[in-house]
Amino acid sequence: MNYTVGFGLMAIGLLLGISGSISQIRNDIKRINTNVNRIAKQVGVPDTVTDELNGLLLEGERIKAIKKYREVTGFGLVEAKEYDDSLKETELK
């Protein structure tokens, strides 16, 4: 019985550690993507992903645009939807 409790606590600790590591890696990827995008803008590299997303939005394919953004960036659904909304606002201006 004591071993079961001990193994259970170790498993929970291991899962929490892995979850924390995954969260940190995601944050690092977001930061790196932001820096790469800034550098690309300064150098003048065309942003083909944004162009493709704008094309999908113009065609009324909002869900495909969000899915594409998630695939390219690794962001979650909320972040992808927020980016989609910001593209729509930029498009309207």
The helix/strand series, from N terminus to C terminus, equals HHHH
On the 0 to 100 scale, the average pLDDT is 85
Shape: elongated
**Integer count of domains:** 2
Number of strands: 0
Q: Whole-number radius of gyration?
A: 19 Å
Question: For the terminal residues, how far apart are their CA atoms?
Answer: 66 Å
Identify the quaternary structure here.
Answer: single chain
Number of distinct helices: 4
Helix-residue proportion: over 70%
Structural class: mainly alpha
Major β-sheet annotation: none
Give the low-confidence spans.
Answer: none
**Proportion in β-strands:** under 5%
Protein name: 50S ribosomal protein L7/L12
Keywords: Ribonucleoprotein, Ribosomal protein
Report on this model:
This protein has two domains: 1-43; 46-93. The chain is elongated and about 60 Å long. 87% of the residues lie in helices and 0% in strands. It is mainly α and 93 residues long. Helix 2 (48-58) packs across helix 4. The chain starts with a helix and ends with a helix. Keywords: Ribonucleoprotein, Ribosomal protein. This is 50S ribosomal protein L7/L12. InterPro entries: Ribosomal_bL12_C/ClpS-like (IPR014719).
What order do the helices and strands come in, and which of them pair?
Blueprint (H helix, E strand, L loop, with lengths): L1 H42 L4 H11 L3 H12 L3 H16 L1
Provide the descriptors you would attach to this structure in a database record.
93 residues; Ribosomal_bL12_C/ClpS-like; 0% strand; 2 domains; 87% helix; mainly alpha; ribonucleoprotein
